Each structure stands twice: as structure tokens, then as C-alpha cells.
Amino acid sequence: MPSEGRCWETLQALRSSDKGRLCYDRDWLLRGEDVLQECMSLPKLSSYSGWVVDHVLPHIQKNAPPSETSASSVSTSALNQPSSVPRSPLRNPAFSPVSSAISNGTKDKHESPHTEPMVLQSPRGMKVEGCIRMYELVHRMKGAEGLRQWQEEQEKKVRALSEMASEQLKRFDERKELKHHKEFQDLREVMEKSSREALGQQEKLKAEHRHRAKILNLKLREAEQQRLKQEEQERLRKEEGQARLRGLYALQEEVLHLSQQLDASDQHRDLLQVDLSAFRTRGNQLCSLVSGIIRSSSENGFPTVEDQAVAEGALQEMRDLLSNLRQEIGRACEEKRRRDEEEARIKQQESQMQQRPEAHKESPIPNQGPGAKPNEDLQVKVQDSTMQWYQQLQEASSRCVLAFEGLSSSRDSQVGGTGVGHSLGSKLKEIFDKIHSLLSGKAVQSGGRSVSVTLNPQALDFVQYKLAEKFVKQGEEEVASHHEAAFPIAVVASGIWELHPRVGALILAHLHKKCPYSVPFYPAFKEGMALEDYQRMLGYQVKDSKVEQQDNFLKRMSGMIRLYAAIIQLRWPYGNRQETHPHGLNHGWRWLAQILNMEPLSDVTATLLFDFLEVCGNALMKQYQVQFWKMILLIKEDYFPRIEAITSSGQMGSFIRLKQFLEKCLQRREIPVPKGFLTSSFWRS
Q1: Exposed site from 221, 492, 594, 681, fewest CB < 10 Å?
Q2: What angle do CA 438, 439, 445 make, to 5 degrees?
Q3: Composition bias, kind Basic and acidic residues: at what positions (predicted)?
Q4: The pLDDT value given to residue 415
Q5: Is 519 exposed, middle or buried (0-12, 13-18, 19+ CB in 10 A)?
């Protein structure tokens, strides 16, 4: 309304006036001031009376009870007197807000059941009271408006806080749910991990169980194969033993027959006046030797290859003995005939001298020559028994070559071919098993194909010959360059020799042919023999009429002697320990004794003695003990001067090396273990 704007302008003007800036104390009546002074004066209407009459009284009359209406009408009529109540200049629309506020206030007052009757005051009091009421009304309105706005703000804040709390609660629930999900996920991952670990452990245990079962099966299979192999070996050993025993019986029969022939020649003793007791005594000794071999073989089960070789040697010696006896009887007969002729000639000369005494001279005496001193020198020729053994091995080798002659000249020569291999160390057992399987008739893989000696009847002879040749060639080449390689090669050769004796005999045949000093045998130069052939017999390699250098020759001989010295002392560790070595240390002792009974060769004897004693000396020392040291002293005191006498100044290296080695061993009273000797740690690796 337009009056409301004027009301606020009026209130603002009053607030800015001097009186409006005065402090108003509502409790001024209580302080007892003399404020009733104006009441003493005549009543005067205020300038605001018209506004009060226009805006307040009508509302009062409308809400007043009937009893009061009459009274108020009187007062109204009195107040409406134009002379006494002038028109208020404030009755304009500008005061409409205040009037509306006052009307609302008065309306509220009239609505209360205990509204006090309005008491008219003085104009100034009415004015003040009106201003006070308007200010209070405005203040209440502002307070109500402020309270309403504050309530709205608080409601907004409460709603915002409620929404924020709701959102935070949602976030809290989400975080809590996320945490629960994470914990559940972690728990599930832990359970899955534990399950995987348990499954992995279970699979690992299953794999270990399968592996152990596989190993056990392999061990059982190997044990079964070993048992079958031992049974087969035992069967073969019995068959070979029975064959050797039958051979020994045949040898004994022949020896006894030859002995009877020796006894039959005793009738010439008186006729020829020669002493044949030595032949008869030696024949009896040989018969006793063969009988002793058969007796010991019957006690031990079956004769060994060595027993058979000794018996064959005794038979050959008996044959030679009978041949020598016949030659001796022939020489005695020739001597008797010559003496008879000489006696006849002398008698004839004596008769002629008696006829011509002047021409008589002293009878001629046959030239006997100066008396010869007994030969104290060492022998150059090898013993007959050793030479026979050497010839038997070479004949066996030749028969083996003839057996597969057709195979070697055809394409089928590849059937028996296999390489021993140069790999040593941890692969020895694999190499040994492969060779043994091949020789036993089993199929093996070689060069990407399956090879078996059963595919051709001549293949076994071919394989045995080539295998023995391969072993000796490794000694000639590999051991000559690397001395430590002698022991791995020798242990495989010894094991094969023990299971397949023919291979061992062929190894000896090849070794003796390439290195005759391993017999020991010093080939003699025969009349009409070519020089190159004689050098080949001595072990030299001759190519295009050129003989190899002495250093290379000694190097090859050294390698083969070292291989031989290693073979006689080593045995295959996985073989049958109950059987004896097929070619043991007793053969090494025989070789050493025979070579010391022969005249030394310059540069050769010293080299071979050093190599043999360095490899095999420790084993011989443990086996023969005091006898061995006696042999060493014999070498030092008697044999060294002979070697030194034939050795030139440019060939003293091998002699000095041997001499220093033996002097050091005598000083320490011990032969050191050779370098590269196979110990138990070698097989564990």
C-alpha cells in the first residue's frame, strides 16, 4: 500500500531527529520522576489523534461487546467534533504499513479475551506510545523475519548436514562393504594360494613317488639283468671251463705219451755213452706240472685261461724237450760215427807208420781249441715258454683275421663296427655297457643305426679283433700323449677281458706285435731279411722307406707299456670280485724278471723300465713286498752298470731318469701311487 512507504519514511525521519536520538527508557515510571506534570494541564489532542481515530477506533468498535458500543459511540461522537479534533495531517497513504501493522497488532489484542480497555493519554504520550508500539512491531517483524530466515538457514543447514551425513554414511557403508570385499577377496586368495600350494605339494609328492618308483623299477630291472648276466656268465664260464678241462686232459695225455717216448730213449744211454737224465728229469717235472694243474683245477672247479696257457706251455716244452733229445741222440750218433771213423783212420795211419818207420811222426791230435769259460753274460733270446706263448697268441690272431676275411672285404664289414670312444671319466660305465652288450649279441646304436653281431656269423670275430686293436691303438696314441689316460682305458679293457677272454688274448697279440718288448722279445735279424722288415719287427713305423724318429718310437712304446702296466693291476669295479684277474700282477712280475734276465737295449730298456715301474711299481710293492725291494736293489747294483755301459752320451736322459726315480724310491722305501690312478672318488663322481 502507498501509506506503508510513507510510514517507514516518517519513522526514519523520527529516528534521525533530535528526539529520536534520545535514549528511551521504558522503566522511567518506576524511578518516580515527575512525569505527571502535563496531566495537570488541560487535555489537548495530539496531532496523531486523527490517525488513531481513523485506524484504531474502528477496529475496537468492531470487536467490542454491545454494552461497550454505546459508550464508545458517545466518545466517538464527542471526538468527532470538528472544533475539538482536527484532521491529522498524517492521514496519507505513506503511513499505511504502520497502520496495517498497528491494525494487525490491535486485531491481535482484540482477539485476546482479556483485552484491557484503551485509556487515552495526552497527545505527547499517545505519540510516544504510538512510536514505541510501531518500533516494537517493526522490531518484532524484523525478529520474526530474521528468525524465519535463521530457521530457513538452519533447516537448510540441517538438510545439508543430513544429506552430507547420509552421503558420509553411504560412503562409510561403501568403504565398509569394500573392506569386507577386500578381506573376503584376500581370504579367498589366501585360501586359493594355500590350495594351489597344497596341490603343488601333492603333485610334487606324486612326482617324487613316480620318480622313486621309476628308480626302483630300474634298479629291479638292473638287478634282474645283472642276475641273468651273472647266470649267463656262469654258464659260459662253466662251458669254457669244461672245454678247457677237456683240453687239459688231452694235453695231459699227449704229455704222458711224450714222456713215454723220453723213457724209451733211455736205451741209447749205454750205447752212445751220453747222460740223458736231465731230459728225463725235466719230462717228469712237466708231467707233474700238468697233473698238478689238473688236480688244482678239479679242486677249484674249472681251470683258468692261465692254467691252460701253462699246460700248453708245458706241452710245447715237452715237445721241444723230445726234439732236443732226438737231436742230442742224433749228435751223439754222429759223434760216435765220427769217432769210429777217426779211430779207423788212426789205426790205418799206425799200420802205415809201422810199414814206414822212417816217416814216423807223432800222431796228429785233433784241434780242440782253447778252453771256453762259462758264459756269464745275460741271454739275448727270450725263454722258450714265453716265445711259444707269443707264437700262440699271434697264431690265434691270424686265425681270427682269416675267420672274418670275407666280411672285411664286403659291405657287411659295417655290421660289427663300433668305436670305443675317446670320452673318459663319468661315461666309462656307459662305454663299457655298450661294448659288453655288443659282444654279448645285443643290438646297440652306433652312428645312427642299430648294430648287432648276430646279423652275420663272422661279425663277432671282426668286432673282437677290431676292439682289441682299438684298445692297443689308444695306448699307442692317447696314453703316449697323456699318461693319465692309461687308467680309464685299462679299467675298461680289463673288464671286457674278464667277461670276454678272447678279446684279452687279441689285445695281447696286438700289443706284442706292435711292441715286442712287452713280451719281452728282442727280434733277431735273419739272413736275407730286408732292413725295413726287421725295423717293423722291432716296432718302428716305416712309411715310404722312411723310419720314424727315435723320440716318436720311444713315445709310442712308452704309451703301450704304460697301458699294459695299468691293465694288469686294475679290475672293473662292477664285475665279479670272486674271480681272479684274467691277466694279473703275476704277469707283470714275470715280465720284470724276464727283462732283467736279458741284455739291455740302449735307450729302450731304461725307458720301458721307468714307465713300467712308475705305473705298476706301487701295486708290485704291495703284492711282493721284500722280494720286490730285492728286485729293485738288483736293478740298481747289477743292471744299471750294464745299461750305462751300452748307452751313449746322447742317450743318457732315459737312464738318468730311471736311476733318479729308483734312488728316490729306495730312499723313501716306497713307490708312489701313479698320477691319475682311479680312486673310489672317481667312481662316485
Answers
A1: 681
A2: 5
A3: 334-348
A4: 38
A5: buried
**Interval 620-679: pLDDT, tens:** 999 999 999 999 999 999 999 999 888 887 778 899 999 999 999 999 999 999 998 887
Q: Which residue has the cell 706285435?
A: 513
Does residue 20 register a pLDDT over 60?
Answer: yes
pLDDT tens digits for range 552-611: 999 999 999 999 999 999 988 887 777 788 899 999 999 999 999 888 988 899 999 999
Residue 150 has pLDDT above 50, yes or no: yes
Supply the pLDDT for residue 335: 77
Q: In 356-485, which residue ranges form alpha helices assigned H by DSSP?
A: 384-403, 405-408, 428-439, 459-474, 480-481
- 415 with 456: CB under 8 angstroms? yes
- pLDDT above 70 coverage of the chain, percent: 74
Distances (CA, A) of 208 to 221, 333, 422: 19, 89, 36
Nearest to 570 by CA among 437, 427, 683: 683
Question: Quick one: pLDDT at residue 49?
Answer: 66
**The residue type at 418:** T
Is the whole model's pTM more than 0.70, yes or no? no
Note if the bond before 117 is cis, omega within 30 degrees. Answer: no
d(CA 570, CA 501): 16
C-alpha cell at 583: 691277466
How far is the CA of 219 from the CAs of 79, 225, 295, 682, in angstroms?
143, 10, 41, 22
Kindly state the cell numbers that stand for 163.
544429506
Cell of 626: 721284500
Contact between 585 and 569 under an 8 Å Cβ cutoff? The reply is yes
DSSP 460: H
C-alpha cell of residue 224: 634282474
Residue in the block written with cell 795211419: 349
- The average pLDDT across 164-178 equals 88
Sorted by sequence, the CB contacts under 8 Å of residue 75 that are 6+ apart come out as none
- CA pseudo-torsion sign 36, 37, 39, 44: negative
* The three cell numbers locating residue 186: 584376500
What angle (nearest 5°) sits at the alpha carbon of residue 479, between those of residues 478 and 485? 95
Nearest to 482 by CA among 566, 543, 570: 566
Q: How far apart are alpha carbons 426 and 173 in whole angstroms?
A: 71
Provide mean pLDDT across the span 270-293.
72
Type of residue at 238: K
pLDDT, tens digit (0-9, with 9 covering 90-100), for 420-455? 444 455 578 888 889 988 988 888 887 778 888 888
- At 536 the three-state DSSP class reads helix
Task: Go through 243-281 and write b for each residue having 16 or more CB atoms within 10 A of its CB, e for each that does not.
Answer: ebbeebeebbeebeebbeebeebeebeeebebebeebbe
- In this structure, is the dihedral angle defined by the CA atoms of residues 210, 212, 218 and 223, taken in order, positive or negative? negative
Which residues are CB-contacts of 130 (< 8 A; sequence separation ≥ 6)?
Answer: 48, 51, 52, 102
Q: How far apart are CA 30 and CA 35, in angstroms?
A: 11
CA distance 551 to 238: 47
